[in-house]
Design goal:
The chain is of the alpha/beta class. The protein is 39% helix and 13% strand. The protein binds L-rhamnitol (RNT) and zinc ion (ZN). Zinc ion is lined by residues 156, 198, 231, 258, 298.
Length: 391
Amino acid sequence: MLDVPISLHCWQGDDVVGFEDPSRGLSGGIMATGNYPGKARSAAELRSDLDQAYRLLPGNHRLNLHAIYGDSDKLLDRNDWQPHHFDHWIGWAKENGRGIDFNPTFFSHPMADSGFTLASLDGTVRDFWIEHGINSRKIGAHIGHELGNPCVTNFWIPDGYKDSPADRARHRQLLIESLDTVFGAEIPHAASNLDAVECKLFGLGSESYVVGSHEFYMGYATSRQKILCLDAGHFHPTEVISDKISAVMPYVPGLLLHVSRGVRWDSDHVVTFSDELQAIMQELVRGDYLSQTHIGLDFFDASINRIAAWVIGTRNALKALLMALLEPADKLRQMEQDGDFTGRLALLEELKMMPFHAVWDMVCHQQNVPVGIDFMAEIKAYESAVLSKRN
Ligand code: RNT
Ligand code: ZN
């Protein structure tokens, strides 16, 4: 478990605001609800908050940055961000031996106001976002090269229609062409950047049609050999990604997971210790997929302490992973092969009562991080010393 890094998403720390023009609202059909005080207002505050979260996690974990989270003295616009604007993050990651992942930001910008970016009918809009995509791959490669640890750069494009379109095909053709241009560009240190693509079923304001659907990216990732990103909140509410892992793995060079929790819609609630979380980790362990899988988190709850959100969600992901690693997988497989489905069911149910929490507590103890609920005392102390001073 300690060998598996989880990529913590920076955007839980400030409700996906970032460090461009602060008057820009969040767009792209995603939404952070709540107004809990103390969100990070600068890269320095965000790093401080992240440090506090990492101190409460066993193991050494990655950071997932969005393109709007660089360091700059001046207010920058979307396509002004350059690799050197991320050198502060790189230095911070080096100090902590951390890997960094990256995301272009195809939302919260006037050029995305039409609801379309790379799949826009307007060539000027497409070109703007193609430039952003290429810039982002350059930044990812710079980060990966500097850290000596490849950076996964994940493309999520919100483009879609609220109501039923007359022409679904045209936008999909344009998205293929735009992505091919972005991924075809020569960039320095290309080997240090791993491209990934993320599908989605629907968003707020794109209920009827999302250009980059699951089938679209399944085909794209397979034909272009890109990493496929599966976000747990991006399918029909009764559809689970745990069952998809072994179905897509034979076709793609790797998998990126956005571990999230949708409640009735893609609401991005904090990850809880749910059956589905356990099933995701079981699939990764049982299928021996951990080495080809990048595990990231994706939720943003603005109604609770944001550091606690990171810590609760990440600790849950780690607990589920630990539980999966402790499972007698060979024995279960043997029972299945022998046709002993009664024994399989009996053992699977007994396993739920096994004292895996004692192993978890011991890992936390040995790693010098709080055991059990004790992590909340540290979060409360940080809240009164640091977060409560922000307004
Ligand atoms: C949106 C996608 C995407 C975003 C982040 C902020 O539905 O899940 O991954 O959450 O890029
Ligand atoms: Zn996601």
